[in-house]
Amino acid sequence: MPDYVPISLLSLLFVLVGLYVVTQADRYGRTWDEGVQDQYGTATYLWYRTAGNDTSFLNFDPSMHMPEHGPFFEFIVAGAQFAFDGDHWHIRALVCGIAGAIGIVAMALCGYELGGWWGAFLAASGLALFPRYTGAIFNNSKDVPLAVFMILVAWLTLRLVRRWSTGRRWAIDAGLLGVLLGMAISVRINALIWVGVLGLVALAWWARNGRAAFRGGTWWPALRKQLIAGGLIGAVTYATILACWPYIALNPVTGLPHVIANMSAYPWDSTILYNGEVVRAQSAPGGYVPRWLLVGSPLPTVLLGVAGISLLALDLIRGRVRDLRVLIGAALFFVPLAMLLVMRPVLYNGPRHFLFIVPGLILLGVYAVQRVAALLAARRAPARSALAGALVLALVGGYAHSAVASARLFPYEYMFFSPVVGGYSGARGKWEGDYWSACHTAAVEWLLRNRSRYPAASSPPTIGGVAGDGANVPPGWKPTFAAAGDYFVSSDFWPMPPDFEVIHTVRVDGQALCSIGRAPARA
């Protein structure tokens, strides 16, 4: 099939994603975390703007460990908010959405490296049709940007391997890889995992080429080149971290080890809802990650990923994998997954903490599709056409089902659940749903439109159930956090006070997400 078909499809996808970002940024609710993340970004921006004189980013509640959280993307958001006139929260949502769109473009670049134009289209569409990614790009400024930077890091690694033997261009790619890896680590420390991936790439090269290098006397030039590239990547990575992370810039020797120690045993031990049971985050079952990948992903993504894993394993056994870049794409999934399973870090809020491994699962699915396509191409025409048609129909049907389920959840697609557990309605009450209380925005907006019908006793009114950082608190109102005020926004975390009158409920897919309550009249 000519290249213009996947190129046209990919171009259409990019246009649709761009329109989605521009037109839908204001439709998605502000989450429980966004207020404090926004404040952290502003404080970080002021540190740079004042040449280090403003150190307010160090003044957050110590229990939140904010300085130890990577601030780089929050700094980008704050920079845009200071640079452009407009609504503060709209600019934030738009910048986050643009970052999410860049991730889809980066997936296309990875797919192109691995499988040409069809690989680019399949990879980009796989991520665009992943509801827990696309449905979170406007209000998740931590996990989605990490996934975006990890995809970009994977792409530059793929390009570095491809251009390894082409003059000195490898040095440029190594330097750029260091910059992007440093930025990724400065978003979330989890990106440090990629250092291990780069080490595995070097080992894989020696496993394949080492014997010939020793026989031909070229082992030392090859090793020296790898050492130079590794040193360049390491130096540029750390320099970028120092430039992008004020806390580590102020503690250049002890800062990074402290962050690694703190985040690998993050002191958060509240309860989570997991498979119908309430468990503590620090004692979550060992199958937390794979099970959430199953129940929180579109079924075609999981099935294609499993097929890709099986086919890749078979090809490795038979010695058919000639391109190391295929293993790099797989490493984007396998290496973080192995680390999560072995180290058992504190995880909560569904799959958001390991969203960055999903692109690797999608790339494995792309590998499966292209391997099956190659197998079909070797068959006779009648059988080839029938099998290819069945495969296309199955893929389109599976993703169409996910798209319909996502549309029913709009604008809360980050609560998507697989048909394996009965979709969102079947998972309700068994798995974490609106864990960030994004529905609070819709609830408060309704209250502001209808406040005259339900007047409050005090002026300005007080409101409970919402975070007191300003994200969903109406201007001038007084937040009471978990305590009851004149009004109360209930959620999975904060139930409605028993004597409050429920005046409105936000629903999605027939299920109640949160409610607005009014305090009873006082005599």
Jot down its keywords.
Glycosyltransferase RgtA/B/C/D-like domain-containing protein; transmembrane helix; membrane; alpha/beta; two-stranded antiparallel ribbon; 5-stranded mixed sheet
Walk me through the topology.
Elements: H1 4-24, H2 34-49, H3 72-83, H4 88-128, H5 131-134, H6 143-162, H7 169-185, H8 193-216, H9 219-244, H10 246-250, H11 255-264, E1 271-274, E2 277-280, H12 288-295, H13 299-317, H14 324-343, H15 358-377, H16 381-409, H17 423-427, H18 439-450, E3 462-464, E4 478-479, E5 487-489, E6 501-508, E7 511-518
Keywords: Membrane, Transmembrane, Transmembrane helix
Protein name: Glycosyltransferase RgtA/B/C/D-like domain-containing protein
Transmembrane segments: 89-110, 117-138, 144-161, 191-207, 227-248, 292-314, 326-347, 353-374, 386-410
Architecture overview:
The chain has 523 residues and is of the alpha/beta class. The chain folds into 4 domains: 1-141, no CATH class; 174-261, no CATH class; 265-433, no CATH class; 439-518, no CATH class. Helix content is 59%, strand content 6%. The chain has helices at 4-24, 34-49, 72-83, 88-128, 131-134, 143-162, 169-185, 193-216, 219-244, 246-250, 255-264, 288-295, 299-317, 324-343, 358-377, 381-409, 423-427, 439-450; strands at 271-274, 277-280, 462-464, 478-479, 487-489, 501-508, 511-518. Strand 1 and strand 2 form a beta hairpin. Helix 2 crosses helix 3, helix 6 (143-162) runs antiparallel to helix 7 and helix 8 packs across helix 14 (324-343). The radius of gyration is 25 Å and the shape is globular. The termini are far apart.
